[in-house]
C-alpha cells in the first residue's frame, strides 16, 4: 500500500508576454488535501479466542480453535487462500467463533474483497455487539469505500468502546477534515496524539488541517514533529516543503522536496510542486524538467501539462504551449484557464478565429464557475482580439 500523499497547490506565476498581450494569468487552484490514515485491518491477537464459556470446550470446539490458530499463522504469512480455508473450517465447526469472522474479514480486506470483509465484521459484531476490533475494521473498510456516514458511525461506536483508541480519533478526524469541519478534525487529531504521542500520521494530518486554516507555522511544527518520529515520512517532508515554499523560504522548500524525492522517487506530485517552485524562481529549464518527470510518472496529470504550457509560453514556444493546454483540456474540459492561455497562444500565432473560440469558451466557463476575475480577463482579451482582427 502506498502511504505517500502530498498536498499540491498551483504556484501563482504571472508570465510576461509582449506589449501586445500584457500578461498571461492562470488560476490559483488547490488539489485535494491528501493525508495518510492507517487503513490497517486488526486481526485478533494472540490467536486464542476469548473465553466466553465456563465449561470445558467440546472436542468440536477444540478442533475449531486449532483451525482458527492455523488460520492465524497463514494470515501472518500472507497466505490468504490457506487462511480463508482454515477460518472456514473453524466457523463450520463453531459458528459463534467471532474472532474467526473478524480475521477472515481481515484476509478479505487484504485481498480487496471489501464487501465480503464487511459481511464478516458485521457478523462478528452481531455475535458480540461490543467487539471493538470489528468496529474498527469495518469503519476502515467503509472509509475506503467512501461510505462516510457508516464509517463515522463505526468510529463513534469504537470511541465509546475504547476511548483511548488513537487510530479511531485520527480516522474520524479525516472525515471531519473532508467535510470542512477543521476545528473538529484538529480536536480529534490532538486526542490521537494525546493517547499515542509517537503517532506520526496524526501530527502530519493535523499539520494539513492547520495549513488549510492558513496557520503555516503550526503546520510546519506538526510536519517537523512527524519527521522527528519517523525520519522517513515522505509526505511530511513534501507538505513541509510546500508550506515553506508558500512562505517564500525556497531553500528550505527545495531541501524538503529533495528529501521527498529521495524517499519516494516515483511520486509525481513532488516533482510537480518542485517544478512550481522553480517556475516562481524563473528557473524555466529546471521547472520543465520537473513537469516532464511528473507527466512521465502520471500521463493524466492535467495540472502538470497546464503549468508546463505556461513555461513554454514564457519561452515563446507557442506550439508546445498550445499542445500542453490542449492536453489539459482533454483531461478536464472545464479547465477555463487552459482555454484562456491556449487562446493567448493562438493570438501570438495570429490565428485569430481559433483564439476567439477559446476566449469565448473561457469566458463562458468562468461565468459558470463564478470566477469574476477570469471572466473579466477573458472579456478584455476578446476586446483586444477584436481590435487586432479589425487592423
How far is the first residue's CA from the last residue's CA? Answer: 60 Å
Tell me the total number of β-strands: 2
Which range best describes the helical content: under 10%, 10-25%, 25-40%, 40-55%, 55-70% or over 70%? 55-70%
CATH homology superfamily of the domain at 59-163: Tetratricopeptide repeat domain
Structural class: mainly alpha
Beta content comes to under 5%
Radius of gyration (Å):
27 Å
- Point out poorly predicted stretches: 1-39
Just name the CATH architecture of the domain at 59-163: Alpha Horseshoe
Largest sheet: 2 strands, antiparallel
Describe the structure.
- This protein has helices spanning 59-76, 80-93, 98-110, 114-127, 132-144, 148-161, 166-178, 182-195, 200-212, 216-229, 234-246, 250-263, 268-280, 284-297, 302-314, 318-331, 336-348, 352-368, 372-390; strands spanning 15-16, 23-24.
- Among the domains are: 59-163, Alpha Horseshoe (Serine Threonine Protein Phosphatase 5, Tetratricopeptide repeat); 336-390, no CATH class.
- The N and C termini lie far apart (60 Å).
- With 391 residues, it is mainly alpha-helical.
- The chain has 19 helices and two strands.
- The longest helix is centred in the C-terminal third of the chain and has 19 residues, at 372-390.
- 69% of the residues lie in helices and 1% in strands.
- The relative contact order is 0.08.
- The protein has a two-stranded antiparallel ribbon with strand order 1-2.
- β1 (15-16) and β2 (23-24) form a beta hairpin.
Amino acid at each position: 500500500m502506498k502511504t505517500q500523499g502530498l498536498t499540491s497547490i498551483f504556484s501563482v506565476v504571472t508570465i510576461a508576454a509582449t506589449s501586445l498581450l500584457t500578461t498571461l494569468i492562470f488560476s490559483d487552484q488547490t488539489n485535494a488535501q491528501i493525508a495518510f490514515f492507517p487503513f490497517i485491518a486488526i486481526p485478533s491477537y494472540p490467536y486464542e479466542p476469548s473465553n466466553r464459556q465456563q465449561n470445558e470446550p467440546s472436542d468440536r470446539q477444540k478442533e475449531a480453535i486449532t483451525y482458527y490458530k492455523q488460520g492465524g499463522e497463514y494470515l501472518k504469512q500472507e497466505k490468504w487462500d490457506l487462511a480463508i480455508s482454515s477460518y472456514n473450517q473453524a466457523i463450520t465447526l463453531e459458528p459463534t467463533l467471532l474472532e474467526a469472522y473478524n480475521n477472515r474479514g481481515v484476509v478479505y480486506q487484504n485481498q480487496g474483497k471489501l464487501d465480503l470483509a464487511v459481511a464478516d465484521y458485521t457478523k462478528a459484531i452481531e455475535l458480540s455487539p461490543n467487539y471493538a476490533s470489528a468496529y474498527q475494521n469495518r469503519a476502515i473498510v467503509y472509509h475506503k469505500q467512501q461510505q462516510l456516514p457508516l464509517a463515522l458511525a463505526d468510529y463513534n461506536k469504537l470511541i465509546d468502546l475504547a476511548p483511548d483508541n488513537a487510530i479511531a480519533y485520527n480516522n474520524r478526524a479525516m472525515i471531519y477534515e473532508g467535510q470542512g469541519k477543521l476545528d473538529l478534525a484538529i480536536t480529534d487529531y490532538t486526542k490521537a496524539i494525546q493517547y499515542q504521542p509517537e503517532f506520526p500520521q496524526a501530527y502530519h494530518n493535523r499539520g494539513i488541517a492547520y495549513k488549510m486554516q492558513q496557520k503555516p507555522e503550526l503546520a510546519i511544527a506538526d510536519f517537523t514533529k512527524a519527521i522527528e518520529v519517523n525520519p522517513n515520512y515522505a509526505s511530511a517532508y513534501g507538505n513541509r516543503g510546500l508550506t515553506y515554499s508558500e512562505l517564500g523560504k525556497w531553500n528550505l522548500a527545495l531541501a524538503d522536496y529533495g528529501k521527498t524525492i529521495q524517499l519516494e522517487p516515483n511520486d509525481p506530485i513532488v516533482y510537480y510542486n518542485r517544478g512550481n517552485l522553480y517556475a516562481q524562481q524563473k528557473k524555466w529549464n529546471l521547472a520543465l524538467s520537473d513537469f516532464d518527470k511528473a507527466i512521465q510518472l502520471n500521463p493524466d496529470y492535467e495540472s502538470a501539462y497546464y503549468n508546463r504550457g505556461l513555461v513554454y509560453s514564457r519561452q515563446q514556444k507557442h506550439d508546445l504551449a498550445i499542445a500542453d493546454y490542449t492536453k489539459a483540456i482533454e483531461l478536464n474540459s472545464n479547465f477555463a484557464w487552459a482555454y484562456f492561455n491556449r487562446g493567448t497562444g493562438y493570438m501570438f500565432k495570429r490565428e485569430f478565429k481559433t483564439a476567439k473560440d477559446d476566449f469565448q469558451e473561457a469566458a463562458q466557463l468562468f461565468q459558470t464557475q463564478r470566477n469574476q476575475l477570469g471572466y473579466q480577463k477573458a472579456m478584455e482579451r476578446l476586446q483586444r482580439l477584436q481590435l487586432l482582427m479589425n487592423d
